[in-house]
Backbone:
């Protein structure tokens, strides 16, 4: 009857996907940023903090032997670089030297650029296995990760602003640098080679997951 049909319709519920939800987003990575040219206009205390941050970045670059200074060969044009200066949470001053990768020429300065990224479904599956087996979870951050990738191509770059000393020489890159198109791929290759050397197996279905099993333990490494 009409009343029964009406009563049934009243009991119909909307699917969960049509419910109203609140979304919270926390942007805590970066609070502020400045350019290298602006540093001299800042108060003396801030200038000191930025200089310290850039010195720390240069120490990392030198420690990883990212480049060597050479005379620029004839008919070669060096690519440029820039300082990315940001104030992060807890008022941490962070400086990163970035190559201007948009100046790179395909098949000359780079070839392959693809680096795999783990899918959310694979990550959920690993977490489910960890919970089911009551395994422990550790999170690690590789500082200046991209600087560990080896570079096959021959790339010349101008010296960083503030650290040139008018030597007339340029940087011949030996390792990957943030901003290079092949940097993610080279870091992934270096990481993979190292982990496999430690007897981990890379999953065929998910390149970012590595497993090592023994009678006493089971270890998963997830590269995110």
Residues:
């Amino acid at each position: 009857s009409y009343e029964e049909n009406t009563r049934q319709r009243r009991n119909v519920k909307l699917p969960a996907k049509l419910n109203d939800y609140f979304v919270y987003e926390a942007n805590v990575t970066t609070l502020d940023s400045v350019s290298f040219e602006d540093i001299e206009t800042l108060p003396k205390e801030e200038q000191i903090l930025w200089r310290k941050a850039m010195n720390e970045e240069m120490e990392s670059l030198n420690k990883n032997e990212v480049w060597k200074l050479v005379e620029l060969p004839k008919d070669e044009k060096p690519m440029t670089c820039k300082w990315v200066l940001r104030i992060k949470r807890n008022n941490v001053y962070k400086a990163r030297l970035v190559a201007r990768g948009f100046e790179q020429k395909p098949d000359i300065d780079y070839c392959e650029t693809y680096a795999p990224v783990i899918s959310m479904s694979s990550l959920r599956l690993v977490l489910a296995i960890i919970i089911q087996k009551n395994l422990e979870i550790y999170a690690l951050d590789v500082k200046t990760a991209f600087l560990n990738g080896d570079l096959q191509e021959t790339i010349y770059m101008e010296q960083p602003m503030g650290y040139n000393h008018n030597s007339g020489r340029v940087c011949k890159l030996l390792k990957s640098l943030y901003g290079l198109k092949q940097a993610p791929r080279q870091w992934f290759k270096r990481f993979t080679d190292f982990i496999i050397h430690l007897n981990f197996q890379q999953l065929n279905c998910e390149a970012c997951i590595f497993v090592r099993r023994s009678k006493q333990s089971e270890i998963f490494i997830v590269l995110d």
In short: Residues 44-63 form the longest helix (20 residues). The chain has a mean pLDDT of 89. Helices lie at 2-10, 44-63, 120-132, 183-197.
